[in-house]
Design brief:
about 525 residues, alpha/beta, Rossmann fold, Helicase, Ruva Protein, domain 3, Zinc Finger, Delta Prime, domain 3, 4 domains, four-stranded mixed beta sheet, 23 helices, elongated
């Protein structure tokens, strides 16, 4: 009968356990020095080696030919434990044997000395599933255990175990294995089984396994029957991912608010037998990658992505704001929970994508922040385009004269000029063009990018104790009337440059336009249209 790869290549020695060296080194040293305890707790996610290490520890403490903390693997006891035929080693599933009667039977049996081995070892898997009464019954024997008994509790939810049991055990926390470690093990198994696999395929298996070696080898078992050479496409197809291009495609369409294109993409994936729950989970991870790129200085050291994907992720991260990313993760995570309880997973996923394309449909805090962020971007873009328009340059005004026909439009109540405690002093003409205005704008650029978009290409003039600003952006005056912080930024920048506190206001030119002659206007339009004189 065919044996599954995860069973066939289950480690039989501490040295073979990949990714858990921080635990296996301690356990082997305890066995070698005969300092092992009577009760252990192995905790961590599924498929990362908890039960495997428990069996190896059971062999090591009982093996008569143990060397440097490692069992020999060849003696009768080692073979009996590997085959599950040695009665002194009991592996109990707490999910099925969780009641107090099961623990009472265990306590009665534990009082008898081992038949063959030196120690009776009880491996209780999924220990958090024990009832309260059963846990209390187990606690009694763990408080005063016979010298020949060792308990090893394995659990994925250690927080559900009573504190009284935790305090009587040596706890070891198992880590999720990095994708690189899993990929190397996968390639080793492929070499032993004469399976052809590409590096990208092995890495994708490592990523999809979510830190668990058992899941990785189970996926490899499926892939080996699909193609002669296992590639990333093979793994994607066997895992129900329908390729990884859809992640970037869906994200682009969400950013463009293209609901029709998003739903069309989902329909194609569904018709290709893709699992929408898996798609949702992968999309969450994709937005997580975008978040890491947008927040971390060295994202490449954190992200474990396939070659060639990093540049595309960085490009998308620049096109989507952080609030939009956070909103997407929140909506998709809620959807993943709803899928487990819904009769139509596809509908839940489609609803989530429509919400992402139309944040106005969601009233969550993340959605509101994302909408505000998008509006701010659009306003800033419009204002920047207005600031780039050619500005009317006022006629040069002598420094010794008043600015003619200049009526300062009050922006808000001005604070009387005040002298700063310490500031560099530069010479400034009493009236006329403000020569240091470009320096002021450069300071503002570093402090307030939005305000800078209004002031780019602007000029300023002195009129007594006020600086009059001539901006070509039509929204400038309205913006200043509603934003006191922006006025303070400008005043502080002027003070930093010239050492004097000035009030500010807009510069408004009054130009008297001659009355248009209707006939002259008609003649001009006729000339522009190429119509000659009659």
């Amino acid at each position: 009968m065919y044996q599954a790869l995860y069973r066939k290549y289950r480690p039989r020695f501490f040295r073979d356990v990949a990714g858990q060296e921080h635990i296996t080194s301690v356990l082997s040293k305890e066995v070698a020095e005969k300092t092992f305890g009577h009760a252990y707790i192995f905790t961590g996610s599924r498929g990362i080696g908890k039960t495997t290490c428990a069996k190896i520890l059971a062999k090591a403490v009982n093996c008569p030919y143990e060397k440097d903390g490692e069992p020999c693997g060849e003696c009768e006891i080692c073979r009996g434990i590997d085959e599950g035929s040695l009665l002194d080693i009991t592996e109990m599933d707490a999910a099925s044997n969780r009641n107090i009667d099961d623990i009472r039977d265990l306590r009665s049996e534990a009082n008898f000395t081992p038949a063959v081995a030196k120690y009776r070892v009880y491996i209780i898997d999924e220990a958090h599933m024990l009832t309260k009464e059963a846990a209390n019954a187990l606690l009694k024997i763990m408080e005063e255990p016979p010298e020949h008994v060792i308990f090893i509790l394995a659990t994925t939810e250690v927080h559900r175990l009573p504190a009284t049991i935790l305090s009587r055990c040596m706890r070891f926390d198992y880590r999720r294995m990095p994708p690189e470690v899993i990929a190397e093990r996968v390639k080793f198994v492929c070499k032993m089984e004469r399976i052809s696999i590409e590096d990208e395929g092995a890495m994708l298996i490592g990523k999809l396994a979510d830190g668990g070696m058992r899941d990785a080898l189970s996926l490899l078992d499926i892939c080996r029957s699909s193609d002669e050479v296992i590639t990333a496409d093979t793994v994607s197809r066997c895992a129900g991912l329908a390729g990884r291009e859809y992640l970037f495609e869906l994200t682009d369409k969400i950013a463009e608010r293209d609901i029709s294109a998003v739903l069309t993409t989902v329909d194609k994936l569904y018709e290709g037998s893709a699992d929408v729950s898996r798609i949702c989970d992968e999309l969450i991870n994709h937005f997580r990658n975008l978040m890491i790129v947008s927040c971390a200085k060295d994202a490449s050291a954190i992200l474990k992505v396939l070659p060639g994907e990093m540049l595309r992720i960085e490009k998308q991260a620049k096109a989507i704001s952080q609030p939009e990313i956070f909103h997407a993760v929140s909506v998709l995570q809620d959807t993943l929970v709803k899928m487990s309880k819904s009769a139509s997973k596809r509908l839940e996923f489609e609803l989530a994508l429509v919400k992402l394309c139309s944040p106005s449909l969601t009233q969550s805090q993340e959605a509101l922040i994302a909408r505000i962020e998008k509006l701010e971007k659009e306003i800033l873009l419009l204002k920047a385009r207005g600031a780039a328009a050619p500005a009317a340059v006022p006629a040069a005004v002598p420094a010794s004269e008043e600015i003619p026909k200049a009526e300062p439009v009050p922006v808000a109540a001005e604070i009387p000029p005040e002298e700063p405690k310490s500031a560099p002093v530069q010479s400034v003409a009493s009236d006329g063009e403000f020569a240091q205005w470009e320096d002021v704008v450069e300071i503002i650029k570093a402090k307030n990018r939005m305000l800078y978009s209004f002031l780019e290409g602007s000029k300023a003039y002195l009129s007594g104790k006020r600086v009059l600003i001539d901006s070509a952006n039509d929204f400038f005056i309205d913006y200043m009337q509603k934003n006191d912080d922006a006025k303070e930024v400008i005043k502080n920048a002027i003070t930093e440059v010239c050492g004097t506190r000035y009030g500010i206001g807009p510069y408004k030119k009054t130009e008297k336009k001659p009355e248009d002659d209707p006939l002259a206007v008609l003649a001009k339009k006729a000339a522009e249209m190429g119509i000659g004189e009659l």
